[in-house]
Sequence to fold (685 residues):
Amino acid sequence: MQETTSTTAPSQPSRRGRLLRRLRDHQPGADRLAAGGSLRGLLLRRLRDGIIVLLLVVTVIFFLAHVVGNPALVFAPVDATDEHIAEIHRQFGLDRPVAERYWEYLVGLAQLDFGESTWQQRPAIDAVTEALPATIYLTVVGLGAAAVLGVIPGIVAGARARKPFDKASNLLSVTALSVPNFWLGLLLILLFGVQLGWLPTSGRFETASIVMPAATLGIVHGGRIFQLVRSATYEEMSKPYVTVARSKGLTEWDILRRHVVRNTGVTTATIVGWEYVRMWGGAVFAIEYVFAWPGVGLLTIDAAHRQDFFVLQASVIIAGAFVIFSNLLIDLGYQFIDRRITAS
Amino acid sequence: MSGMPLLEVEDLHVTFNTASGPVHAVDGVSFTMAPGASLGVVGESGSGKSVTARALLRLFAITDDARISGSVHFDGADLLRIDERRLRHVRGGQIGMIFQDPLTSLNPLMTVGEQIAESLRLHRGMGRSEAASEAVELLGRVGIADPERRATELPNSFSGGMRQRVMISLAIACRPRLLIADEPTTALDVTVQAEILLLLDELRRSEDMALMLITHDFGVVAATCEDVQVMYAGKLVEKASMAHLFDRANHPYTEGLLRLVPRFEDAHAGRLHPIPGQPPITGGGGSSCAFAPRCAHAFDRCRDEVPPEVAVGPQHLSACWLAAERAKDGTEAGRPWKRAQ
Fold:
């Protein structure tokens, strides 16, 4: 045992390896075992944590917006006098102390009142909920594409490390994840929209509109999923129980299917879940902007341009809530994958 | 050894292609085993004993990038040349294997019953329920209490010793004719070690299967094996019957290993004699005795030529330039009781 690993495994305890190990340490399963809690306890704990995080998000976005921007300037004509601007301030209540407005905002939020949009002249929450389904649709399809592109080739490459398929797919995935997402989007538009004219380039007017933005998300995030799944599979394949499975006379395919994939399942779910959260954290904004996809990302950027605090805040908070909710779903998903977790 | 041998290994070489160049882990190993025999393979870490065992079944991952040459005749067929499908039939079906670390040798997400049943269904063509009840039976045979319930549990609810019992039941599930145990007791407590060795010995006798036991511990071999061979740097340096070897160890390396077995009567004297130096990382390929740099008796010839295996007694071989001389005069470790004087 000892000697084979020392003489034959030129494996790299690389950065990726460390990341994977961290990933594993972060396994909520382990956390749960240590806490020894029940499913309900876990849900309550997660809910509490979620509320704390949301409160932080609200606070940061509120003060950031109010320190950086001033919506009065957007509404005032170019030649507006100071009095004129002060009048607009009064109109929006911007003349009152920030702390007071912050408290008022929190009280409003507690009643699910996200404030009034200065730009659209309607409740901010309406603007966000109207845009939300488009973003959910885009990210879910994008994640599906990323999972297909990342997980299956990742498993195969990891099981056949350093073979031609591994080398080729590895090169592709590194390229995919290194390319800036908006640039890749523009490239796709140029190729499939402008040159070939196969696909619509912007908006959401037909079914095929989803293809390019979702493909962009799928390629970029699939590249990263591939890397992590490949590493996890490679590491799993070098574990003694795999050699035991081989010594039983199983085929490599059965070893992969019955033993390895089951054991990397939790890691894979974590990786895919994280990528979903990452999409919300960034890619979705750039991609929606590039493809003029009418979702929360585009709305947020527009709101920022127009200094529409309440819409900006509402979309960031809703996005944050969505991320927290997705994390919770991932956690619950473990229950069904890893029996050890429920065993406690 | 008489009659048809069960296993006949000839000139086995294993080379790994690693990032830092090829590593010649096994360098021309030949030996035979009769049906029902018990053979201990002893050597330090890196001597190539585990690699030898794995090479018999070509048990390397694709990523190991191992090259194996020579021949391994088992029951008439050359395991190095038969196709994958027939080889898989031998693996688990004809040759069972147990590994060093029982804590990592079992799939953590599969019940132990399922893991045993997997083998039974594969090699003995059993159905799901038949395999499940046979698995329970096997768990009982290796001394696991309440096997019916235990079969449905995951490995993490078993202690190290119990997991090794599970591994043994898995390895013998299909009544193999040869059981290879690769350091089966190294990771276990001493008391558990003894139980496991006893179990292996009993099973060998009752199942009429041959046992190849790989270890670095002469004590383990002495308890379980009739024959023993010592490996160093990918080569066999000495072979003999166990009783014979304890009396007349010939090779200086064997002698060094025997001196390392702690003896109760020596404990108060603080008398342990480590072999100076380290084993070479890359075995074989050289034009000298690999042990020469660490050998107290080495002379010029040892550094210029590889010593051949020389018969120094009945079924006793030693690969040392001084073998004949040492056989005549006897060695210090060959007479351990002398050391006390």
Q: What stands out?
A: Chain B touches chain A through 53 residues (CB under 8 Å). Residues 190-207 of chain B form the longest helix (18 residues). The longest strand of chain B covers residues 21-33.
